[in-house]
Amino acid sequence: MTEIKKENKSMSNVPNLRFPEFKGEWEVKKLGEVATNKSVKYNPINATSSIRCIELEHLASQTGELLGYIDGSKSGSIKNVFNEGDVLFGKLRPYLKKHLQAPFDGVCSSEIWVLKGTNISNDFLYRIIQTNSFIDLANQSSGSKMPRADWNVVENGLFSIPSLLEQQKIASFLSLIDERISTQSKIILRLESLIQNLRDKIFKQNLRFKTNKELDFPNWENKSLGEICEKKSSSISANKIEDNFGEYIIYGASGVLKKVDFYEEKSDYISIVKDGSGVGRLFYCKGKSSVLGTMDIIKPLANTNTYFLFYLLSNIDFTKFVTGSTIPHIYFKDYKNENFGIPSIEEQTKIAVFLSQIDDKIEIEKQLLIQYENQKNYLLQNLFI
């Protein structure tokens, strides 16, 4: 196991955490002294063959994940050339923290810096651009609506640089954390894909459950949504809860908003965003909680399991019920007449337990991912100066 220890801070220019085999202070350099953003230009007009091209939308925010690429020979605009191992950083809206260490040779948008280490390794440079010190400099940008990082500012930023061997040690160690984060993200994606496929099969009745005595459940009955659930409205505005604090959750369009000293619903329910951004988004809400007025409360009627209802609603494409262009909106009266096959309450319960167990597993894996990401952030703050 890799050993890291707290450094003796009798010397000023050393990191808080350090590998024990390294001693002495780090050397302070301007970033422009150890790295460059100069790159060869690529003109698709002169292209004779296809080439992989990375645009800003292909860079995931914060994770260093490559989401795809296009054929640069058909892009129609001048690009920056990069080589495998070069460090890419999105200079447009730098607060999005779009970065990548190039896994192949190619070209990229002119809104992406191609950074190369001149007196430091590219691997270490890739870690520097993820530190708060670099991001803070990049955010000293020009433009308000479309802010862009200014290289004249960034290249004059001061960074402490260790020996090449220590650079390699730090970069190698952090790459292990990155690999674990990537693996964890893939685990979550596989589980989310699994539950989606299972939901599809269950509600198409391609996957059925048996009673505890291994007998078939009754055939599903065709019912409208309005026959199995009801809608309630909330009148709570965000302004009314600004200075309210307590122990009960209140939900907003992005999930848990905050905790307040009151609740409107005693038992579990489903909330759906009915107004604005995220319209149609669903949340399973535990009892003794509330929602903002931009959301509707959906509650099951008799002989309907709440978790089953949540998974049924999750299979509905609510976009077809959206009205309004400036502020999108959906109304219960428009989707309550949708018809579905509905199983007996006993089979509903079996389905709900089965799917919620996978959801619980997904939540556990998401919490692990958060822990790994927090660990990486801690290391970025303490392995660097």
Automatic annotation (TrEMBL):
Q: Where is the Type I restriction modification DNA specificity domain?
A: 25-192, 219-371
**What keywords tag this UniProt record?**
DNA-binding, Endonuclease, Hydrolase, Nuclease, Restriction system
Q: Which domain of life is it from?
A: Bacteria
Q: Recorded GO terms, molecular function?
A: endonuclease activity; hydrolase activity
Q: Does the keyword Hydrolase apply?
A: yes
Enzyme Commission code: 3.1.21.-
The UniProt entry, under InterPro entries, shows: Restrct_endonuc_typeI_TRD, Restrct_endonuc_typeI_TRD_sf, Type-I_RS_S_subunit
**Record-annotated membrane-spanning stretches:** none
Signal peptide residue numbers: none
The family classification in the record reads: Belongs to the type-I restriction system S methylase family.
Name of the protein this chain belongs to: Restriction endonuclease subunit S
